[in-house]
Amino acid sequence: MSAVGFPAVAAAPHRSDTDLVRVYVWQWPVRLTHWVIFLSIATLSVTGIYIGRPFLVVPGEARFHFVMGTMKVIHFYAAIAFTLAVLSRVLWMFLGNTYSRWDKFIPVARRRRLGIVGTVKFYFFALRKPPGFIGHNPLAGMAYAIVFLFYFTMIGTGLAMYSVSARVGSPLRSFEFLVPLFGGLSTAHWIHHVIMWLILGFAVHHVYSAIYMSQVEANATVESIFSGYKFVPPEDVIYSGYRFVSREESVPDRPAHAAPSRKPGGPRG
């Protein structure tokens, strides 16, 4: 990490058919919250489906097995982990490096707004080369912003439903005000259920697109969520998203003095 807060580029670039540089994109808080959110969603989905429609049948009296109670306890603690991870990731949108920032989810910069059209063209096979953005491209960033709205809706509806059954004196009782905001318990439960399936659908697409882009760009997209590093052309570090706009309109993601020493070539694709 440089003194001005921009991600550092390794001094010795990785070599393949073209010169690539190793860029530290995803810091450890991003990677940690990503995996906590993933694991908690998986746990919440399984336990939530069981709570709504029990699919395990055990012999004997329920008081000797406590299957539903166990599922509810697991669901409760997974919800705590999920909420803390989501809040931590949002906080890191203001504290993290340039690739983690909130403006990568909301395209306030003109360069990123211009990149939306080119990104759509690539996804519809109208462009041969993929986007030149190192972190989230602007279209993916907006999709993630919507997913975070889903996350907060899940948290809100979950707190609303739990508040009415929380023990007397529990701090969670204070969230009863959310119940009428969601139209009552039945509506809150319906919203909670529908958004769960929307998030699971997004998760399937997310895994597919990550593997696909990792193969097309050959920049370690999938591996980066473990290591934090991507391997990208030097010109993408200097002119992030330049494939969609002229270089005069491109704004470097990094200061010029920190750019790779090799002079980048002309636009590709």
What descriptors fit this protein?
269 residues; mainly alpha; 8 helices; 3% strand; disordered C terminus
H and E string: EHHHHHHHEH
Query: Please, how many helices?
Result: 8
What distance separates the N and C termini?
31 Å
Number of strands: 2
| Rounded average pLDDT | 82
> Spatial order of the strands in the main sheet?
1-2
What are the low-pLDDT stretches, counting only 5+ consecutive residues below 50? 1-7, 9-17, 250-269
Give the C-alpha Rg: 22 Å
Helix residue percentage: 40-55%
What does this structure look like?
The structure is a single chain. This protein has 269 residues and is mainly alpha-helical. Helix content is 53%, strand content 3%. The chain has eight helices and two strands, in the order βαααααααβα. It has helices at residues 28-52, 67-95, 110-123, 138-163, 178-181, 185-217, 221-227, 234-238; strands spanning 21-24, 229-232. It has a two-stranded antiparallel sheet. Helix 1 (28-52) packs antiparallel against helix 2 (67-95) and helix 4 (138-163) packs antiparallel against helix 6 (185-217). The model is unreliable at 1-7, 9-17 and 250-269 (pLDDT under 50).
